[in-house]
């Protein structure tokens, strides 16, 4: 006896072919046993980061947040590596940075890489006031970290644990790029995404590789929409399709739009091009208006964090991981 999912899939195929369009969404029931993603918990992890203050490199909140993140991963039983390094910023400042790598099931040969950045912007260069002051970075930085911490928490506490290895990497120095619209842009190199550039050239393990990677950047904002980012489609189109199909199957199609967006130079580009690991970027960037109004402003606070967005992203990534069992 065929299920209702068979007939729904058949109907989508007939309608799509009748219009001369290849269907993009595979309609299949989420029949994989995977743990519940608790949005309230992810929200609390974001709040905790914001409470430290702006996580700008070379500051006390940056150091305190690092210690808390390491302790949190260790509390969940993950193997944690602190990759400490120095990098020169666009203005000549010497930055003391740390990539945090937390590994689940380190013996597994098949590995999935999940990443976000944990630092914050040292200036509010898109704002109209307090431009020279650092931002809270509740969405731009803390949201991706909060989702990953919740994923780490649930996979280590669930009776049904994934058999694949998972490496959580929190990149540092992602947001220390040049101010927007500066007249003196130093184009000798890319001055942001410093942590991913360093790790991609010198990974925490010699010869490290992963089956694929997922980067989370600005994944907690109200009314967020995630489009298929250009470099992700170029380097890892099949992973984009898998993740976006999973989101639709879980009922999160309003968040994950079946539409392409432009290329974003984010942490994933260096993982793709230097480390040679196919990585996609789940990022709130619209092909129509770009980043949201709160991007690189003081509006990037807890006021814009939406638990529904966190749920959509976290549940989709969890479901994707458990498909690899």
TrEMBL record:
Pfam families membership: Peptidase_M28
Domain Peptidase M28: 99-320
A molecular function GO annotation: zinc ion binding
This protein's UniProt keywords: Acyltransferase, Transferase
Descriptive protein name: Glutamine cyclotransferase
